[in-house]
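Late entry, zinc ion complex.
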Amino acid sequence: MRIYINQAGYLPKSKKIAVLAEEIGVLKGKEEKKIRVFDQKGTCILEKTAIYFGEDISSGDMIWQADFSELEEEGKYQIKDEQANQSYMFKIDSSLYKDVNQLLCKALYFQRCGMPLEEPYAGVFKRESCHEEKAVLLEDYLKIMNHEVAKEEIPYFDVRGGWHDAGDYGRYTTAAATALAHILYGFTWFPKSFQHSLLIPESGNGVEDILNECLYELKWMLKMQMKDGSVCHKLTSMRHANFVMPCKDKRQFILFPASTMATGAFVAIMAKASRVYADIDKEFSKEAFSAAKKAWDWLEEHPEFIGFRNPEGCNTGEYEDNDDKDERLWALTELYLCTGEETYIERAKVLFEEVKEKTALGWSDVGGFAGWALLEEEIKSAREHKIPVVDEWKKESRVCESIAKWKRQYIDLIIQETERWIKLSDECGYMASMSPEDYGWGSNMVLLNRGMILGVAYLLSGRIEFLYGATKQMDYLLGVNATGYSYVTGVGENPFKNPHNRVTVADGIEETIKGFVSGGANKNPVDEKAEWLIEPELPPMKCFLDVWECYSLNEITIYWNSPAIFLAGFLDSLS
Ligand code: 9MR
Ligand code: ZN
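Prediction complete; structure with ligand written out below:
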């Protein structure tokens, strides 16, 4: 029998459920089990019954669940069953998610490109600057390759800065906008959860460090905009770097053509940033807004969809998408919030009807961010006054105004969707809001995005099951899953340690940088090693290996950290 708990621990008042699991077929009986909670001195302080849940399809396990929520006293604990099987140690601690969040945010600093990471901030992970060389446009790159022009004849672009996207050294506009959206909305709604220092070069300048960190990315993003207002889809070399430190990667960086998705996402995040930084960095705020406006004008001149596909021979990320309506919708709502101009919102309302994934929060579907933008103020004040948005609305009966009606529609959509996630969570022995089919590449992002929606739905409705649902997604991430790993490096007793991350592989340091979220279990891995090692019959939740070569299982990305940052911020804000 294996016993799973959230290895980071629990907030004193939160729901706490230990999962006991055994592979289907090993045990006959379904009878209840006893568990005991021990404190650090080894004293048994609580005895609970683990109730048989049933067979769990995603993991192939028989499951028992023991609710020990009544344990609220801060301290360090461990759970054992009658056969002396034991869980990892865990804490009950009210500042738990502040600490987790700090690591998750600091990890972004370790993704910084184009500047040295110095010892006072990076410790043993200090490293030289990287990717300082200027980039070229794809068309010029191809001409050079075909010997049609000389290297000296083409324009070069200074595109230093930003975060490496993931385990690779590319930087991609839609991925960046998504990560920033999770973080900036998290900051807007849970500012108190982001007061900690990250020990970065800007620390102590009077600005919250998370905003300092995001500014590093935002300022790079501005460089992705071309003179005509369009925004390049990505900045990478033609092929991924070898497994070398970033300073050793001397491949030519290329600005790939603009797409309407990248430009739309750019408009939206720059508009949002111009509001977030309005009082903090006036100059940047203005610059961000005019960049957004210029990008929007370009989009207006290009009403057709301009997608992105890798040119032949290119193997870096594609971030493909076949629809830009959601990006345009998000852009319109953010521009409306900046300007109050009705035309934006009128057009957004029309587009809204055409967008398919209206609540999605990922890099390909961003419709949900339009909803977040629309409800930005309501959720903020709900959080501040601890009153759910819908209750506040009942008092004001705002439903008659046309925008309010649309907001209401968004709320209903979010709640409907959240009910689905609750149902999935109830059907899963490990309480993840995931169906067996959901374990694909980056499954932890799917899980965390649902966690964010659950959190937002709680703020909108005040329904406690949504809060428990959000908590359960975090519990899965941090250890209540059939692999027994905490999917965040440096968090818990058994975190994964070998991310598919060029820096980690090449730095020769035993220790792993803390605070990275793994992509997680993937039942359809595409990397050679995982294809080789993952048995086809393995249940989806167990399709994971802590092996650095397995990029389709164990990579890290900025937009897998960002929803965890949002969720940790949300949970912390309730403690
Ligand atoms: O996370 C992305 C995953 O959902 C896609 O299936 C996959 C293939 O397009 O790409 C993943 O994104 C990778 C990106 O292309 C390059 N940087 C690393 C990303 C994480 O693996
Ligand atoms: Zn770099």
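The mean pLDDT is 96. Will revisit in the morning.
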